[in-house]
Amino acid sequence: MSLTILSVSYSLAHVSRRTAGGAEQVLASLDEALVRAGHRSLVLAPAGSRCEGLLIPAQVPTGILDDEAKCEARRAFKKLLDRALNDYTVDIVHMHGLDFIHYMPQCDLPIVVSLHLPLSWYDLEALRRVQSNVTLVCVSDAQAQTAPRDLRVDAVITNGVDLSRFHPRQNKSNYVLAISRICAEKGLHLAIDAAERAGVELIIAGSVFGYSEHLDYFESMIRPRLNEHIHFVGLVGGGHKANLMSGARCLLAPCLAPETSSLVAMEALASGTPVIAFPNGALSEIVIPGQTGFLVSSAEEMADAIQEVDSLSPAACRRESEARFSSERMFGEYLDLYRSLLTPKKIVELAAA
After folding, report:
1. Do the beta carbons of residue 275 and residue 180 sit within 8 Å?
2. I need a surface site. Which of 111, 136, 152, 275 has the fewest CB within 10 A?
3. What does the pLDDT look like over 69-107, one tens digit per residue?
């Protein structure tokens, strides 16, 4: 029974395997898995995105991403989404953007919404009022536990990563790694503090998006501290990212906001690389202290943990990723959800097609 899934990204974030955004990486992974399994995948995303299915490209603003740019992007998405539903026979609409409520279609089709960010970042009143055909999905138990009692959470599907892209290395290099969006809530200035205190080389990778607060953070808190021991290499993907991951002594994740998930932590474990993290949100679910990393509460404790990280087994990290964090497991759970939302009449129609 072949399905047609229309996936809708965040209106200002490009979709690809290389993007820094977890929501966009999950969308790209599901798109690839749908095509590989013989389903039809339609992806509405900003022009320049990369996908395996059919891209429906939206022309959205670039450069400084202020409120005017956000409104313009949302208008473009709403127009294209309505047109796509008119032009294609779609079984499920799957929305991934923080701002989905601004362009969610008014239709009878099943709509799945993956809530990739902290629930407090969404318009909770709007979430409470969504139609009965909308299924709200949290991406970790930690995130679901933050939901107000009167907010309906229909499912929890933990994110996963493509384990075939990451492999442990026999011999580690002498650097520690931090990969994330470059913004204050990721705490990268604390990663620098920890690396300097531990006397180790730090490589920082990720994107500086065009939001004024992100640009200000990079220019004031990160760029002035770059030197021969603290490196910023920008966005990485593919083999370069996999090599950085497998070669690192550990991944540092001093996140200050509650993480709803952490694909980069899952990728590190798949690479046989332990994770040293603040226990915010889902990071406390991902890291097993003393086995696959350490949970710490300050830059000082992070520095101390760096000195202990070589005692952890890369093989144990890999085994944990295989047991819990496979993208195949994630796709299977979403596919089961899609099928459960179809009406009996629709199932008969698809089976006969």
Report:
1. no
2. 152
3. 999 999 999 999 999 999 999 999 999 999 999 999 999
